[in-house]
């Protein structure tokens, strides 16, 4: 039931003397129906790891295999299609198009991916749970940080992705809403068999995770101690 | 379309400014072109109204109507068919006390030849006698009426306006049509001179005379005093104006696209195909430029309706249309220069980690 596999991933930035290694020989496997949490301090390489996993950037070395297919072998176009149909990305900082209302953010996706999205009823349900139903006609500029984060989560779930890649999805949320988001991810994993990968420095999510990894200076290790600590 | 329209709707002010700029540029180009065309046609309106193909002038006249004379002797051996007509040209200042003096082109005609016969009057009747004249409507606009009597230069003879013609302009001056006898009188010539030139509707007409030479209509027009210089000035002026405005528009659209890259990066991360983004960019440029062109055209039409008659304007639809198409094309180029950036937009570098 492996759905995403990273093999021996290295990532370097810069050249010559300014060359730094941000990811060091990372091996990682995500299974369907499982919530994986990657915890690490700022600058440890979390976002780099997640964007490589989602095919947004290429590793310097190693391979990313998504549902049996190596991302290296895909064209840009195929990678776009993969993200649209299989992956729900929640980015760290910038998720919404400033000139579309909340409702239109979904409409845009629907125009391009016509089928196999949440139906109106389920979308309303999701938005209610995230407490963003009343924001439908607002523009991102009119939302608070936490509100846009919750809209971004709903946007990512709208396409019913097989894999959710979330970068600090709870950074701007209070504890109550962190719990709600954790429950939503849990429900997705259990009921839809979605693979969820969350990178964060927020330990509050650890109790919802099936596996907790720690990333430090570019090296990643399974660390279930962190889960116990949080729970 | 969805993306481009939504963006325009949200950023009304920004896009309003850009459309305003495009409107102003179109308007400027349209009006300048029309003014230049108007002025240029005032050089040649009369010539065009005759439907002539060639003209016979003295070969030593430097292709200038005012320097050419045809003598009675020369004419004797010339065969004039119904397609030929003699004209006698004189530059005159026409005056009537109380009214504005008019610098005009007097053209003496023979009543029985095609120019006089084909003349289309807007009012009055044709010339029938040495003291009658038919004048361009500019005289009417300046207060002259039918049956008014005019004098030319210091000449004492009075000439009566018996009719008006429209668009009779030669070398940016209104034309006064009279007969050959009047022309001889004005030029103080005796009847040894029968005219300045022979105009023919036949492109290959040949007067068969050593001293006379046939010129095509286009050669004749290009040698009208000041005409070529004036036209090349206008062509360069409008050409430079167009190139510069097109670059300005292209630069604006380029900047506009660059500003969108961050949004495009987000869309790429969501898996929206690059094709959708490119379409959004192109359709937006087209929407902006076409609305600018439409508003510019409407403004130009209003200006044309409001502008006084004394300002010559001529709207050459093919030329204005190609200006419009040129605008659309360059704006497309302007917005497509960064297309490589759109296609290769790196979500990570734009959105950050
Ligand atoms: N494009 C790049 N060029 C050079 N260095 C980069 C680039 N992207 C990231 N880095 C460096 O790689 C390291 C890891 O960055 P990354 O964004 O993955 O950290 P992070 O764990 O997500 O941090 P945060 O919690 O602050 O988001 C940082 O030291 C960063 O400066
Ligand atoms: Mg990060």
UniProtKB/TrEMBL annotation, chain A:
CDD domains per the UniProt record, alphabetical: ABC_MJ0796_LolCDE_FtsE
One Gene Ontology molecular-function label: ATP binding
Lineage, opening ranks: Bacteria, Bacillati, Bacillota, Bacilli, Lactobacillales
Protein name, UniProt field: Putative hemin import ATP-binding protein HrtA
UniProt membrane topology term: Peripheral membrane protein
InterPro entries documented for this protein: AAA+_ATPase (IPR003593), ABC_transporter-like_ATP-bd (IPR003439), ABC_transporter-like_CS (IPR017871), ABC_transpr_LolD-like (IPR015854), MacB-like_ATP-bd (IPR017911), P-loop_NTPase (IPR027417)
UniProt subcellular location: Cell membrane
Key words of the record: ATP-binding, Cell membrane, Membrane, Nucleotide-binding, Transport
Automatic annotation (TrEMBL), chain B:
Ranges that cross the membrane: 15-39, 234-256, 277-307, 319-339
Locations listed in the record: Cell membrane
InterPro entries named in the record: ABC-4/HrtB_transporter, ABC3_permease_C
Topology of the protein relative to the lipid bilayer: Multi-pass membrane protein
The keyword Transport belongs to this UniProt entry's keyword annotation: yes
Keyword terms, alphabetized: Cell membrane, Membrane, Transmembrane, Transmembrane helix, Transport
Main location: membrane
Boundaries of every ABC3 transporter permease C-terminal domain copy: 235-347
Origin: domain of life: Bacteria
Listed PANTHER family: ABC TRANSPORTER, MEMBRANE PROTEIN, HEMIN TRANSPORT SYSTEM PERMEASE PROTEIN HRTB-RELATED
UniProt similarity note: Belongs to the ABC-4 integral membrane protein family. HrtB subfamily.
Function: Part of the ABC transporter complex hrt involved in hemin import. Responsible for the translocation of the substrate across the membrane.
Record text on subunit structure and interactions: The complex is composed of two ATP-binding proteins (HrtA), two transmembrane proteins (HrtB) and a solute-binding protein.
Name of the protein in its database record: Putative hemin transport system permease protein HrtB
Source species: Companilactobacillus baiquanensis
Lineage: Bacteria, Bacillati, Bacillota, Bacilli, Lactobacillales
């Amino acid at each position: 039931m492996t759905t995403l596999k990273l093999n021996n991933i290295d990532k370097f930035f810069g050249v010559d003397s300014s060359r730094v290694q941000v990811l060091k020989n990372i091996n990682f496997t995500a299974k369907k129906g499982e919530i994986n949490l990657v915890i690490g301090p700022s600058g440890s390489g979390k976002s780099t790891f997640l964007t490589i996993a989602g095919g947004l950037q290429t590793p310097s070395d190693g391979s990313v295999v998504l549902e049996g297919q190596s991302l290296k072998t895909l064209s840009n176009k195929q990678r776009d299609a993969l993200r649209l149909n299989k992956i729900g990305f929640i980015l760290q900082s910038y998720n919404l198009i400033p000139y579309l209302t909340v409702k239109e953010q979904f409409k845009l996706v629907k125009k391009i991916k016509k089928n196999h999205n949440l139906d109106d009823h389920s979308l309303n349900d999701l938005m209610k749970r995230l407490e963003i139903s009343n924001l439908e006609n607002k523009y991102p500029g009119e939302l608070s940080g936490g509100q846009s984060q919750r809209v971004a989560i709903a946007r990512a779930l709208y396409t019913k992705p097989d894999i959710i890649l979330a970068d600090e999805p709870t950074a701007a949320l209070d504890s109550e809403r962190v719990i709600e988001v954790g429950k939503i991810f849990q429900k997705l994993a259990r009921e839809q068999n979605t693979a969820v990968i969350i990178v964060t420095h927020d330990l509050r999510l650890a109790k919802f995770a099936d596996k907790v990894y720690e990333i430090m200076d570019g090296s990643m290790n399974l660390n279930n101690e962190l889960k116990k600590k949080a729970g | 379309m969805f993306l481009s329209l939504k963006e325009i709707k949200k950023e009304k002010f920004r896009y309003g400014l850009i459309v305003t700029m495009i409107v102003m540029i179109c308007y400027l180009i349209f009006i300048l072109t029309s003014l230049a065309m108007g002025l240029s046609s005032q050089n040649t309106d009369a010539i065009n109204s005759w439907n002539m193909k060639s003209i016979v002038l003295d070969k030593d006249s430097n292709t200038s109507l005012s320097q050419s004379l045809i003598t009675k002797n020369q004419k004797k051996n010339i065969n004039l068919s119904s397609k030929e007509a003699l004209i006698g040209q004189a530059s005159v200042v026409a005056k009537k006390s109380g009214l504005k003096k008019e610098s005009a082109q007097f053209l003496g005609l023979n009543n029985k030849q095609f120019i006089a016969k084909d003349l289309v009057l807007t009012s009055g009747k044709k010339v029938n006698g040495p003291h009658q004249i038919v004048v361009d409507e500019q005289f009417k606009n300046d207060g002259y009426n039918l049956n008014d009597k005019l004098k030319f230069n210091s000449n004492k003879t009075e000439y009566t306006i018996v009719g008006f013609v429209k668009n009779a302009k030669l070398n940016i001056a209104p034309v006064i049509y009279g007969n050959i006898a009047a022309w001889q009188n004005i030029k103080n010539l005796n009847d040894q001179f029968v005219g300045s030139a022979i105009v023919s509707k036949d492109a290959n007409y040949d007067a068969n005379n050593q001293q006379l030479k046939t010129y095509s209509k286009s050669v004749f027009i290009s040698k009208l005093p000041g005409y070529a210089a004036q036209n090349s000035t206008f062509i360069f002026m409008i050409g430079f104006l167009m190139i510069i405005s097109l670059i300005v528009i292209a630069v604006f659209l380029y900047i506009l696209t660059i500003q969108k890259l961050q949004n495009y990066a987000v869309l790429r991360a969501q898996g929206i195909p690059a094709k959708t983004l490119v379409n959004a960019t192109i359709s937006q440029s087209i929407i902006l430029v076409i609305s600018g062109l439409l508003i510019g055209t409407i403004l130009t039409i209003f200006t044309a309706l409001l502008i006084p008659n004394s300002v010559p304007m001529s709207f050459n639809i093919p030329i204005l249309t190609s200006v419009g198409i040129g605008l659309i094309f360059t704006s497309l180029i302007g917005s497509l220069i960064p297309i490589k950036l759109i296609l290769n937009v790196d979500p990570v570098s734009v959105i950050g980690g």
